[in-house]
Amino acid sequence: MANNEIVPDVTLISLPPPPLQLGDLRELGFSNMTPVGAVQAALEFVQVTTGLPWWGTIVLTTTLVRLALVHFAIKQVRTTAAMAPVRPQMDALMAEVKEAKLKGDNTRAQVAVLKVRKLQRETGTGLGAVMGGPLLQGASSIVMFLAIKKLCDFPLAQLKYEGVAWLPSLAAADPYYILPALSVGIMNLQIYLGRVDMAAAGKASLHFINVFPIISVASFAILAYLPGGLLIYLVSNIALVVVQGVFLRTAAVRRALKLPPLVPPKPEQFPSMRDTWVAIKKWFANQERQAVVHAEQRSHIPVFPAQSGSPTPLRRPPAPRSMRHGSRGRKN
Fold first, then answer.
1. Residues paired with 227 in a beta bridge
2. pTM metric for this prediction
3. What span, in angstroms and rounded, lies between the C-alpha atoms of 213 and 209?
4. Long-range pairs for 17-25: beta carbons < 8 A, 24 or more residues apart
5. What are the helix (H) ranges across 194-317?
6. Which of 192, 166, 161 is nearest to 179 (CA)?
7. What is the per-residue pLDDT across 231-240, written as a single tens digit (0 to 9) for each?
């Protein structure tokens, strides 16, 4: 009887790998001296010191990064509030710049641009102040995305066993499409709740509110193929941005941070889908007209290619035929 017993092959049983130790990612080729490597080292540190599963490690690390960027978010709110009173004047100047460029009046366009820059300096709403915060926050999101993507693509062995209930492997796509649907839904919620801030940024931003739902639904096809670890990062990051936005729009918080009170936009400020479609067609028409103007301006500028070996990029054009004949002398 004992000789007839079937002994299971233990080599076929998949056992979870041991927990990571500090330095393991570096031995695997991660955690190098780059921004992406620094984020991977931070993920490893959080996972080893807290003992959280990898899905919790991603959420906690994302939360810590968002908290570190709160200062820049507050600064961005102040800049947006400072732009609101001068927005009509700024829009009028930018419209003057576009009109002058379409007519080929470069002098008038340059004068209007100088007025815009002067207004920005006076109100502290220059390009650095307006774009600095968003660029930094966007760069941090891209670095986090790439760091987690590389771990999922490898894939890191621990990611296969430390997922969520319906998605045990964070290196695989969500088979039930729950996380892609959450990503799309939270993105649209973020845009909807941020309408007040976007109204202060100009009418072009309000058109984006109408276009974004179409873009987000189309992005579902891409999100559906992303690994679960990346989707957990996207959902948690966007959810934290939504919570941060709601927090900074609260009247008590704005008073404590000495932020100006929010001015609710009027319903007529928000364009309809028809208005957005007309604006898109107008934008393409203006781009075409501007290209025609630039082509006409270039056609009136004579360009004489330099001779080979010439130290200057341009050479003097040849004299007219009448002048060349006249230089030989006149017949009496």
1. 173
2. 0.77
3. 7
4. 17/157, 17/158, 17/161, 19/47, 19/48, 19/51, 19/158, 20/44, 20/47, 20/48, 20/158, 21/48, 22/48, 25/156
5. 195-201, 203-223, 228-249, 251-256, 273-299
6. 166
7. 999 999 999 9
